[in-house]
Amino acid sequence: MNGSEHSGSYFDKEINLDNLYSALIECFSVILCGYAAGKLHLISPRETRGLDVFVRAFSLPSIIFLSLAQLDLSTVNWKFLGSILVSKTIVFCGVIIVTLFLSRPVHLGRTGLYAVFCTQSNDFAIGYPILNALYGTEHPYYPSYVYLLAPISLAVLNPIACILLEIGKIQDREVARIDGEQHKEVIDGVDGPQRPKVSESRTKSKYDSLQSSDIAPKNNPYEGKSRVQFCGRVFLNIATNPIMVMTLMGMLGSLFYHYIKFVGVVLNAFAKVFSTMALFVLGLRMVGTANNLKGNALVAPGILIITKLLVFPLITREVVSLLHTGTNATETLNLSTFGFMYGTFPSAPMVFVLATQYEVEVDAIASSLVICTFLSAPLMYISAKMVFMDFIPSSDYYRKLETFTFNLGIFGIPLGIWLLVLFLVNKAFSKVPHRVTGFLIISQILLCIGAALHPLRNLCKPWSAYVQFFIFAFGLYSSRLWAGFLAATLAVLQSRSLCFVIKLVPGFIALAWGIPAILVVAECFVSVPNYEFESLVNPDFNHKMFQSVVTLLLLSVSFVGTSVCLILQQRYQKRFAKYMVLVHEVNSKDLQDVRETNIAENSERCNEACTGLTDIEEIVSETKPNICSGDCKDEGLCSSEFSCTEVEREMCEQRIKQYKNQVINEEMDEDHQDRQILKHVVLLLLLVTSMFVNLMLSIWTLVVEDAVSGLYVELLFLNITLNIGQIFITFPVFGFDSRILISNLTNRWRRFCYGAECIVLTPPEDLGFETTHVCQQFIAHHLHDCEGEIAKNKRLRLRMYRDCFQGKTLVSWLQAQRLAKDETEAIQYACHLLEGRVLRHIENRHHFENSNLLYTFKQY
């Protein structure tokens, strides 16, 4: 079948997606029903565990056996199946490797579970109806490939994951036993008559052991046990695993299934209810789990979902195309499109069954599975609509592509300007790592300006084209470099010190602005930019081969560098978090003495030197102790392991002093600035995703230059959204941090109306009964205890404030003392205290807020 035939048969084809809608509605309805049943307590946790047992021990093994035993191997494109196996193996191994690098302590069960999540698709409940709707007429044998693709995971990859899960289970038991023994030793040591003080060398040695093993116990979990005995336990657990048993039996049963069809009749009764029961149990387990996904807990599910819905489909399409799985170019194109469509299916409920069976990341997997299923719906719909648009004339989409690019630039410019205003008002450019983020935003604004200027390329030839191309390419290249430098900043800030980062920033500026300028000037000398948008198959490739090489090289370096730096940052963060926990356990008795003698106010200068490898979120809470080793000297300096000379340390002290003088942010407490590490990590993860999409599309453009399919157009629009529209990624992360801007506007309004920036409270004689009663009760029964527990001396902007506390600390105290049942009621209680003059902001400029703002009690 030639290209014209495809154009006539595919381009105008109306696709019936009723089965798609039915499958999605059925899936989500069952999940919501399960959630409602759990939320309304119609099904108890004990009953939920019973349903878990039925799903994993009866229903799932049955469907596995039937799918493997009923395979018809006579008309199979084994080359295509091999390409799917290769793509799944690439993703499977990649997830395991990345998880091993990021996960501290190393947990093999978690790595196997994450790998299954990213490679096991919901083939039977969602996949088959969609594929049957798309290919049931044109390629009726394509939907049957689902029964061949599922065994790739069931028979090849899932057994590997089960082995890792079994090892992880045994590892958990051994670690728990050793932890219990070590905890007893520590308690005995604390209670002993002659407990030695923990020295710097002892703390350092424990930290070094953590660096080498990244596991808290001193002993190897497998020490004292023979490897043969350990392997025997692993294979015994695998041999008694129903999933593994039925997988092996299904592979053997495919040879003589027609002799034992009566077995299929029995197992079919269990298999029919698998999808419904698994999704219903998934909804039950979602009750209360979403509340646990906050802060850093959102990072892992986000990475898993991006890998499953974007990385896996793109890798599958590339592998199928590169291996030329079809007998001709048309069949290869159809199979690659089929592979991409298959990759967009959400993860299978079986991964949730494995999580509950081995009790590994149950809440995270449950939430990720539901979110992945919901997010896959629009992606599957768009892909299904465009899957039959195989050969599209360029005139049918170039015009829309140009308009779309122009709109992204026009709408992105004001968003970027808003972010710059926030950074300037919040004085973020004086802080690290926000200084690097600000330069990244400037690059993204230039990229949007270049996209918005594209219609003006013909205004004054050739200079208008040169100017537009220079701004566009310069913004694109510099934004990629700044993303890599931002990741490097986070990694160095976690591994070295603030002073070292400050020394690197000027070098980052020179490289991030200089390299793009040189590359763009060189490209302009090579050839004249194209004037017509229609001549560009990929808007990133304006200058044929030269710019293709430059773009791919820069993109690859940025992608790899950003990914590696993010991995290192997470490793350092988790490593030092365990170190802090270990030191806290050993020194708990000493810390109690420190609290009682109130010398914590003298330790402010050594906090960051001790925590040079940890981020702000882990140590900003006042409830965590300030632990300093013997080499604590100045904030922001490298630890003694880096062997800095006295001259270098003096220079670093000067840099840190200048830096602290520049940083004046009301939101900071006396110890730390809000570096918003989590926000930067989320931003970089999204930017890495956009780099990956751009990289895959660029490779596709270089390999296949003559065929423009509907899937290519879909990826092209997605690529433009994620690359030219980078500012739309940055804006949700930092665009709503406008508290200081609103505060400044409020202060100016107060100055205009009342002649001062201080807040104006209700006169005491006009206070309501509830406010008066709350204040009287608090003064009589709780003020002394509250002030003694939370009020401390704090330094802010080179000034010392005595007996003050953060607003969020008071909110936590009120809830702990049962004066408020939740956060909302605690904030309302504190507002009554402020209106009644029991407490006030240290500068009388803010009402009460559940934040890091400092307040103090009125002296009675």
UniProtKB/TrEMBL annotation:
Gene3D superfamilies: Winged helix-like DNA-binding domain superfamily/Winged helix DNA-binding domain. It is a multi-pass membrane protein. Residues 792-859 form the DEP domain. Signal peptide: none annotated. Keywords: Membrane, Transmembrane, Transmembrane helix. Residues 187-221 are annotated as: Disordered. The keyword Zinc does not apply. SUPFAM superfamilies: Winged helix' DNA-binding domain (SSF46785). GO terms for cellular component: membrane. It comes from the Eukaryota. Its main location: membrane. The chain crosses the membrane at residues 20-38, 50-68, 80-102, 114-135, 147-167, 234-256, 262-284, 296-315, 335-355, 362-384, 404-424, 436-454, 466-493, 505-528, 548-568, 681-703, 715-736. This is DEP domain-containing protein.
